[in-house]
Each structure stands twice: as structure tokens, then as C-alpha cells.
Amino acid sequence: MASALPAHAVTAGDRDLLESIWSNTATTLARILLHNESESTLRATITTFWHYQTAGLAALLRRLAHR
Question: What CA–CA distance (Å, rounded) separates 34 from 17?
Fold first, then answer.
């Protein structure tokens, strides 16, 4: 993801933040799998989470690209 940005746009701190986000994404997906038994609720919950996640990541990438 960060590789899509100019090299100067992503600091070591930014890379650490992105790694944390992806680590927490895996944790959240695991929790969703544990706490949703039916396929329909599982799909709905993952879809909701992914809408949240992609919007946040898009905003972060825009900020990094334009600072």
C-alpha cells in the first residue's frame, strides 16, 4: 500500500502505523469470525467492517500523499 506513494511521502513512523493497522485488521477479522455464527451475519459484519476500514485507509493515503 505504501509503495503506491512517492518514497518521500512515507516515514518510518508512517510504516509503523500502517503495520499496526494491518495487524489490528487481522485481529478484528478473527474476532468477527469468532462472534458471528451464521453466514448472513458474518457477511454483513465483514462488509460493514470493510467499508469502515477502506474509508479510513483511503483518507490516510490521501493525507500521506498530500503533505
Answer: 26
Phi, psi of 22 (to 5 degrees): -70, -35
Residues 22-58 have pLDDT tens digits of 999 999 999 999 999 999 999 999 999 999 999 999 9
Query: What's the rounded Cα separation, in Å, for the pair 53 and 26?
Result: 12
| 4 CB-side CA count, 13 A | 8
Nearest of 24, 23, 45 to residue 34 by alpha carbon:
45
Helix locations, the chain, DSSP H? 12-35, 39-65
- 52/27 Cα distance (integer angstroms): 15
Query: Contact 9/64 with Cβ under 8 angstroms?
Result: yes
